[in-house]
Structures are given as C-alpha cells and as structure tokens.
User: Fold DNA-binding protein from Candidatus Phycosocius spiralis.
Amino acid sequence: MARRIDPALTKRALLALKRAADKANLSPEGLSEWETDFLSSVEERLKNYGAAFADPDKGQLSAPLSLRQGLKVRQINRKGLKKTHAAPHDGKQPQREIKFKPRKPLSRKIGLKPTKFRPK
Assistant:
C-alpha cells in the first residue's frame, strides 16, 4: 500500500519538534543527550522522507510521527512547561473567581402550542 505524505502535517510535526526543543532548553534540566539525538534524528527523517516511521503497526500511515514518537515529543514539551507552571501565585494579580449564570431552559421554536389531551 502506497503511503500518502501530507506536507502540511510534516511541517506541523517539524514545528512541534522545534517548539519542544526550545521549551526544554529553557528548563533548568535542559535537554539530555538522548533527547537531543532523538529530536535530531526524527527531524532528519521528516525532512528526507516526510515521515519518521514506516511500520504500519506503529501508527497511521498518513501521520508524520508514530504514536511513540508523538508521546516522547509531548514529554519533552512538558519538561519545559514545568518551569512556567511551578511558580507560586505572588499575589500581584488577584485570581478571578469564575461565576456561572443559571441557564434558561431550552424552548422549542417550532410554532406549535402545547394542547391538552381531550378524551372523546
């Protein structure tokens, strides 16, 4: 079965790799040697072939990354997010409390009026 490679999906995958690497580099731990090798090899395969895997058991053939590769990219991305979300609230900006309005019940707008049942 021939593989269909969508250049838009490949471009999105390359951007996701770049964003994950940039965010992880900003974290205090930085990128490990394995993560750097992984991102560079996946990026190279995406540029050369349009996809980073060939086995249909590892993901959809139309996807540029396999399921595991996507998982690892998300984990690397989360590594960089730890720094931004770990900061406690400093009290400068009060956090808003979300208030919910009660909703009106849904009414039908079909032009029919309810009628009472009239037995004969």
Summary: The chain has three helices and no strands. Residues 7-85 form one domain. The mean pLDDT is 79. Helices lie at 7-26, 33-49, 67-85.
